[in-house]
Amino acid sequence: RYGVSRIFLATDSEDVKRQFERLPDFSVTSLPGLDRQTFESDLYIEFRVQMKLVDRKTVTHSSFLDLFLLAECDYFVGTLSSAFSAVVLELSIAQKGYFPPFISLDIPWRPFRPFEP
Questions:
Q1: pLDDT: is 29 or 13 the higher one?
Q2: How much is the pLDDT for 62?
Q3: Which of 5, 8, 93, 116 sits at 20 to 30 Å (Cα–Cα) from 29?
Q4: Could you give the number of structural domains in the chain?
């Protein structure tokens, strides 16, 4: 419908990456040289950084690269229950000046609101 043929994939899962790479008619790109096993865990990445189970520099660099590259995309598919995905969409809107076509796989988009104690 939209003529999409190239996908920038930001995932922590090597299995998901392999599944996308097998899709016909799509060219899939993700951060090169990234050991995705570093990110696969039931523990939140923030906790693993605090416990020094993962290298915080690697996590920081890959997170910012994913964030800024995703915000440049023409379309966005993500889980908006994730603060990371929500920030990607908000940044994309701010950069473009309009809502790009997007799909949330879980909850609808809602604007960030100030914290109310």
A1: 29
A2: 86
A3: 93
A4: 1
Enclosing domain of residue 100: 33-104
Q: Do the domain assignments include residue 65?
A: yes
SS3 66: helix
17 lies in some domain: no
Does some domain include residue 16? no
- The dihedral region occupied by 97, where left means phi > 0, alpha psi between -120 and 50, and beta the remainder, is left
- Predicted TM-score (pTM) of the model is 0.79
Q: What is the pLDDT of residue 79?
A: 92
How open is the CA angle 32-34-35, to the nearest 5 degrees?
145
- Residue identified by tokens 């915080």 is 56
pLDDT, position 102 = 94
